[in-house]
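Hi support team,

I'm filing this because I wasn't sure whether my run with pyridoxal-5'-phosphate finished correctly. The job status page said complete, but I'd like someone to confirm that the output block is well-formed before I use it downstream. Pasting the exact inputs I used:
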Amino acid sequence: MIRPASKDSAAVLRLFPQNTELADDGSLMVGRCLLRDVADEFGTPVYVVDEPGLRVQARRFVDGLAARWPRSNVAFASKSLPCRAVYRLMADEGLLVDVAGGGELLMALDAHVDPSSIVLHGNAKTDAEIVLALEAGVGLIVVDGFGELQRLGELVARPQAVLLRVQPGVDPMTYAGVATGQRGSKFGIPLDAIGDAIKQVSRSRWLQLAGLHLHLGSQMLRLAPWEKAIQVIASLGTFDVYDLGGGLGVQYTRDQPAPTIDQYLDALVTAARAHLPNSAQLVIEPGRSLVARSMTTVYRIVTVKSGDPTFVAVDGGMADNFEASLYVGQAFEATMVERVGGGEVVELVGRQCESGDRLASGVLLDAPRRGDLVAMPMTGAYTHTLANNYNGALRPAIVFCSEGRATAVVRRDTYDDFLAREIKWP
Ligand SMILES: Cc1ncc(COP(=O)(O)O)c(C=O)c1O
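And here is everything the job wrote out:
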């Protein structure tokens, strides 16, 4: 029996995965799986993914872009949630796959992603990574600078399509730590050097310039920077491929709206129609906006320190959600798994030894007690990616939930994993 949500719980539920419901006792379910059962089976913290919801979100991007610009591709920025099952899912839904490093490339190949649909990124690709990508036969390499162009030219021995990553000099109006398109960024080739880079590619026997790439930043809540950047790259000449990167921001809290996918695609495609050749291929690379909402993290409360403020401390923290600590000022939401919405204002904190280890500040929790479960929505992006063993934390399992079946696609760390890299000394 599914219970209808009250007004307050409806506000927080909107942040949870698409296939989230309340059971008849008011307890949270994702993909028809009770979160308390998932927590009991796989331990906490646990990352719970709404698998069908993730597929629908992938199709929203693919179909939405294709409807507006038929010669187009959506690439999954895999750094946002790099695990084999997600690589496979995205490839099945018709997305290209972006990788930014040897490990991500190997994981994509291990998930049987077609190498020709893989795009290699990175501002400091090692020779070993370039060789790995060339040997695998990746579809595109996004070249980030002259040194890389030189090394790539020396290592390549058969035709290889490349994009040049432009530094468009446009402020993405986001957190400094995730801004990449502005002048002075470590990423990309400055505008006044692109002409020389194009000449260098044309002198190479094997490299074929397919087009230009830009990526302005992440968690972008305004659309104007993309419109500006498209205008800027249009001034660099005519190319076959324009990869506009990722960066669409998401709604982390009830009162922080983000552009919808439709608004974002409308803005991009309107600017593309105005400034780019209409025969060109458009590529976008969403990460955060593709995966964030599909996943919720479930924690168990370890202790409650009542006072002003009241601290509710759980069995995870910045070791499994570094995002909450990384962007100072970015608020997150949370709710009790068995009593959704409402309650008292508390500080939801983790168990890592940093004052910055706050998962959600000033959040409402209804009668939190030791042993209860807390769920944090919107935790799909860059949480598993940045998970670490701070204070000996065991990194969580990732569990796909669909139609009442809960399946681990990444298992939880064990203490043996934790000790495995240690070498006996003396
Ligand atoms: C080159 C590139 N493309 C796409 C993305 C994905 O960005 P987001 O997760 O904000 O959509 C990133 C993220 O840093 C990136 O560096």
